[in-house]
Amino acid sequence: MNWRRGVLGLPNLLTMARIAAVPVIVVLLLDDSRSAGIWAAAVFGLAAATDAFDGWLARRWQAETVLGKFLDPLADKLIVMGSLIMLIPLGRVPAWAVFVIIARETVITGLRSIASSEGIVIAASPLGKYKTIFQMTALVGLMLHYDFYWFFGLRWEIFHVDMQFCGLFYFYLALVFTVWSGVDYLTKFFRLFAGK
């Protein structure tokens, strides 16, 4: 087996592992306990780390595949959307904001399909990268949720961190960039198609 290229190359396997992590995170988030949140955050963090790594490997090894181009954004959406939806009944994120994020992703994915069918590639904006970074950071904080007082194995009140507050801070930043990048893409899309 060629670990660099092909459908079962390492970049694609890492992407598939990210998709496989989704049901694990979903099951863990059925439990509102501190330990379940820590495990969910650990699995999510590990999966998120593969996001940049599999793309870097695919480019470095010149091993980009059609399957990889399809699975990579799908994996990102599944792990983020699945996590956000599971956090709603736990009261950690507002449902309306999750709806805005899901609606944006659905609309932009549909427009990308239309553009692709017309042979048009609309360049990704840096806004989308910021959106993803803030979403990933927010989700780790929201999964951890509880207050933490530990620092290098010692419990010191001075190091108190409210993970829910941190998570929501980055969540609302992500929401701003979600809407901003969506409007940016819509503007580019309609400008390109206005002359057709």
Number of distinct beta strands? 4
Share in β-strands: under 5%
Structural class: mainly alpha
Largest sheet: 2 strands, antiparallel
Give the helices and strands as they follow along the chain.
Answer: HHHHHEEEEH
Describe this structure in words.
- By secondary structure, this protein is mainly alpha-helical.
- The chain has six helices and four strands.
- The chain has a two-stranded antiparallel ribbon.
- A hairpin with a 2-residue loop joins strand 2 and strand 3.
- Helix 1 packs parallel to helix 3, helix 2 runs antiparallel to helix 5 and helix 4 packs parallel to helix 6.
- The chain is globular.
- The model has no long low-confidence stretch (mean pLDDT 83).
Fold topology:
Elements: H1 10-28, H2 34-60, H3 66-87, H4 95-117, H5 126-144, E1 147-148, E2 150-151, E3 154-155, E4 161-162, H6 163-194
Antiparallel strand pairs: 1-4, 2-3
What is the structure about, briefly put?
The chain is mainly alpha-helical. Helices cover 72% and strands 4% of the residues. It has helices at residues 10-28, 34-60, 66-87, 95-117, 126-144, 163-194, and strands at 147-148, 150-151, 154-155, 161-162.
Task: Provide keyphrases for this structure.
196 residues; two-stranded antiparallel ribbon; 4 strands; mainly alpha
